[in-house]
Design brief:
Layout: H1 18-24, H2 43-57, H3 61-70, E1 94-96, E2 100-102, H4 113-116, H5 122-133, E3 137-138, E4 141-142, H6 149-152, E5 157-158, E6 164-165, E7 170-174, E8 177-186, E9 189-196, E10 201-207, E11 209-210, H7 214-226, H8 238-248, H9 250-263, H10 277-283, H11 287-300, H12 303-319, H13 324-338, H14 344-347
Parallel strand pairs: 1-11
Antiparallel strand pairs: 1-2, 3-4, 5-6, 6-7, 7-8, 8-9, 9-10
Length: 349
Amino acid sequence: MPDVEDYEWDKPQYDEGALERYVRSLSSKKLVSEPGEKFAYSNMAFECLGDVITKVSGMPFDDYVKRYILNPAGMEESSFLKPEHLPGNWAAPHVRGLANFAWEEYPYNRMHGPSSTLHSSALEMCNWAITNLNRGIFKGRKILSPLSYDILWKPWAEISDGKQMGFSWFFGEYRGEKIIEHGGGDTGFRTHFVMLPDKRAAAVVLCNLIPAPVEEIAHSALDIILGYEPGPIIPYASLIVCKTSSEEGLDAAVAQWNSLKSNHPDKYDFSLPQFYNLFTAMSLERVKDAESIACLCARILPEPDVKVIEDMIEGYQKRYSNNKAATVVLRAIRGHRKGVREGEEQACA
């Protein structure tokens, strides 16, 4: 199945019928390939599975999972539901743009509960780890048959970087040890959950800021578990440079990036993915932020990386044709690529 294009976080639905309405709205969608032909991760498919649970059990998906999985697994405070008004003890979403800001909305919509809206805590996610490491048993209570894990933890698909996919779990290796993991992310939140089944150990990282190095932090925790000295987590150079761009302008930011890259090549991360916050800015219609980040990319990144960014923006624009920020940003990037260096100020004004 294809993936969700718009979660409609800005138009959240809270009623019981939201999930079924969403699934029924998919009747005109086409499969991206024949079943079993290739791997593709699809949150849309998880929504459909959630509605199947609703139909088979006769209970709303979120109620069923709460009663039969979360509560027995020691996750009494965890829920797929969110009140219309954010409770005072819940983390609010934050985003890195040119500067960090708290997002005034929230990534919740009941029609995307099965894929996206589990609310939990580090402590209760540790109970989830214990439940899985015990193959479906928590404090002597059997939630799943241990034999279920022969299916859940069986690799069903080969994916990138030597990793494999089972039923909702990703499999790989870390320092020669088998790992079973799953990460998550929505606007303002990033998470990573990883288990070492042979060591009966796990790590969970929850962060209410994007982008954030949650996988690297989880791996540092695994290092400690395995008896290694954790390596340094190298910060994105963009954390400093975007702030400079916001406060002192584009030229100062470009000079700072070049200086950091020349004088501290091992102290900072200069990779392309750190600028994917550009797409968060576009999705939130923060047009000035998005344009400024795009212009910064055009000035500091190698030409092949700028082309990658341009192609991604073009794909984003086709998918979200109503997004004004995408049109502005694409114009700025193209202006840079078509012009010479003397034309950058005009392209990225």
